[in-house]
């Protein structure tokens, strides 16, 4: 994965290179009363002359452009169809590693959390430096698909809660998920990450089977989460399924777009380089 | 267990093979993981249901084919119970089928009756006949009847058997066998046989075994018809005012009946009298062999309300034969009533009892009910229930009496009129019309007795006793009346002594001496009893009793138009070779119209038909002893053709399935 992530990242570099870090530029952040010990360079002399009050000018730097990766590791992400190069989770891990490589290359801190996952996967706290990339890679290589987001509604809270609380303005949050088995209200919950100046990119990762429903004849389909079993005639049910899938995707896209987030759809047979490039472009 | 049995069982197990194969093929669709399964709408598995339909057709075809194969393999070992007529030498056969249509054949046998099974057996026998065979059909219900004389027309035989219906007659097996023998005697076939399809319950279980010492082979198949059972029924139900008398009989041996009684004890068997569905009276009965009279009474209100309504007696709960568990209640029914109108006061001084004619009728035990009347009734309604009336030396008839007598005699009644001194001195306004339109005189006679040579057959044996009657006087008819009478016995001088005259459908007899002992010695002579006996017998032929057993003919002498309507519709009236007659075969109430005069008669069951104990069968009459009659049927050709058809059907189904798959 390390090698592939590097190759993917290099492919992205070859196309469009833009760092999330903007250097030392500052933006005015407001006034506050002067307290002894404050740097006198930021004392607002104009306010002192106009209002006879000692105020200190405050500035917000853009140096916190941390990349926070959220990978859906619930059971449904372990699906791999006959025509897919790998499971959705593996493909998502590759894209996440490539994004981490890019971020580390730009000097941005990177963090990693999971939604679900088998045997309590350990995420990576936000940190900078090359060693964090290794930790991200190690975590992604160790994670296995597991957990039922439909049965355990708290799994979403565990994955996103920390980001919602700690991610600062300007943070980039990339969520990699199939969005298929998340609990009711997940759209609003995920879209809420786009508030407070954060950049949210949601990548829907689907297997080619899930896009095409290529089965024939009578099939008995068992959902990986929720325990749903459906017996149907594939030819008869295909059009209906594709319509409902499109409706689900549109629902997510609508909610996310409304909140200022970006939505990217990916299929595991797609070239990861292109997808990473789309994610980077969406995160600008 | 022999090898054959083991093989048959193994082949039988093969019938499960298509079933198992069908289930294996119908296994559930393979389950596969699919994350967004909840987005897939369950759809009717079209392809699968189609294949299921095809599977079923194939499954059914293969299952039937395997069963057919098993039967084909087993057919040499199977003996079918179907009756068939086999012939040892291959020659044509003359066969008389004795089909029992008596009431006892109504006993239920599964979903059908004994009669249905017997008739089905007759069809089976007819289906095994071939060109050159002759068939006769004799019905064993009493009296035995030839339904079909021996004929080679097998189609006619089938039609006759098809047309035979169940009746409630008695059984006359011996008569039916004799008739069958007579029919076969004229046939040229060497191989002759009589087949009896009967339950053999003719009421004489102790009679000699049937078929014993028969000159023709008698085959009595269908042993299932002869399973012993018991039956109870209502023989008659009579009503006199508010009182009813129901006679119940139970057939079979006492022991068997007792078992039945024990069995029925918990069911509280009883006799009920109903008007419509309303129970007016009921009484429990104790079952046993023989008959038993049950007396019931109606309440005063019910009696008045149902005075002219039809009532029914019902035996509950039902038993082997349901038809005899219900009977109509007959008002004032009796074997026959004879009214006697004589001067009791005058004659009792001589005899110390009733009139001589009454005592003579009782002594004869003619099974008639005597109804002494003080005078001739004025209304025909009082006379119509009577078999006849004996009037001894009446002093003429009033106009009302004449009208009533005329209607009674012309409607089929009989009258015996004894002429004496009172008849000859009728008061003004009274006459002996319509019997004698002219005056009768009472004159001294020189002749002392009758001339036996002039006696009619019914009186000839006793005529000699009337040679000396010691009569001083006698009645003399007017010459005009004398010519209208037919003399049955004449005085020695040729004057009529006993004569008769037909009036309408009835008949009037006259005797030119009174029936008392004062005028002559006639009452002391056997001729007197013979006279009463002959007159009663003649009266019976003209007025049938209101209740008769099934199968007894009703004759209507001198009737022009007769219509008999029974429970199953009109009963055919036969006219060839005698007076019109009808033979009712079904229990129930019959409405009879004779020359615009309407009456009701009733057909009751015979007690013997309730005795369902079968008669013994000669050993030579069961099929094993009959030798050449084997009930084996070869079904192999039909099975083989069926298998061929099934194979073609399966090929068709397979081709159809293949074409569907290619289209899909």
Topology diagram in text:
The complex is a heterodimer of chains A (284) and B (664).
Chain A: H1 2-15, E1 26-33, H2 45-51, E2 55-61, E3 67-72, H3 88-105, E4 110-115, E5 124-127, H4 130-142, H5 154-166, E6 172-177, H6 186-191, E7 199-206, H7 208-212, E8 218-222, E9 229-233, H8 234-258, E10 262-267, H9 272-282
Parallel strand pairs in A: 3-4, 3-6, 6-7, 7-10
Antiparallel strand pairs in A: 1-2, 4-5, 8-9
Helix pairs in contact in A: 1-3, 1-9, 3-4, 3-9
Chain B: H1 3-13, H2 16-25, E1 31-33, H3 46-74, E2 93-99, E3 108-109, E4 112-113, H4 114-127, E5 134-139, E6 145-151, H5 154-163, H6 173-185, E7 191-197, E8 218-219, E9 232-240, E10 243-250, H7 254-265, E11 270-275, E12 278-284, E13 290-297, H8 300-305, E14 312-316, E15 326-328, E16 330-331, E17 337-341, H9 344-351, H10 356-364, E18 369-372, H11 380-383, E19 388-392, H12 399-410, E20 414-418, H13 421-424, E21 441-444, E22 450-451, E23 473-476, H14 479-482, E24 486-491, E25 496-503, E26 506-511, H15 526-542, E27 547-549, E28 554-555, E29 562-566, E30 569-571, E31 573-574, E32 581-582, E33 588-594, E34 597-604, H16 623-626, H17 636-663
Parallel strand pairs in B: 2-5, 2-7, 7-8, 9-16, 17-18, 17-19, 19-20, 20-26, 27-34
Antiparallel strand pairs in B: 3-4, 5-6, 9-10, 10-13, 11-12, 11-14, 14-15, 21-23, 22-24, 24-25, 25-26, 28-32, 29-30, 29-33, 31-32, 33-34
Helix pairs in contact in B: 2-3, 3-17, 4-5, 10-15
Give an overview in words.
The complex is a heterodimer of chains A (284) and B (664). Chain A is 39% helix and 21% strand. Chain A has 284 residues and is an alpha/beta fold. A six-stranded mixed β-sheet of chain A has the order 5-4-3-6-7-10, with helices on both faces. In chain A, α6 links the parallel β6 and β7. In chain A, α1 packs across α9. Chain A starts with a helix and ends with a helix. In chain B, 29% of the residues lie in helices and 25% in strands. In chain B, α2 packs antiparallel against α3 and α4 packs antiparallel against α5. Chain B starts with a helix and ends with a helix. In chain B, β3 and β4 form a beta hairpin. Chain B folds into five domains: 77 residues; 154 residues, von Willebrand factor, type A domain (Rossmann fold), CATH 3.40.50.410; 102 residues, Sandwich (Immunoglobulin-like); 206 residues, Class I glutamine amidotransferase (GATase) domain (Rossmann fold); 44 residues, no CATH class. Chains A and B meet through β8, β9 and α8 of A and β1 and α3 of B.
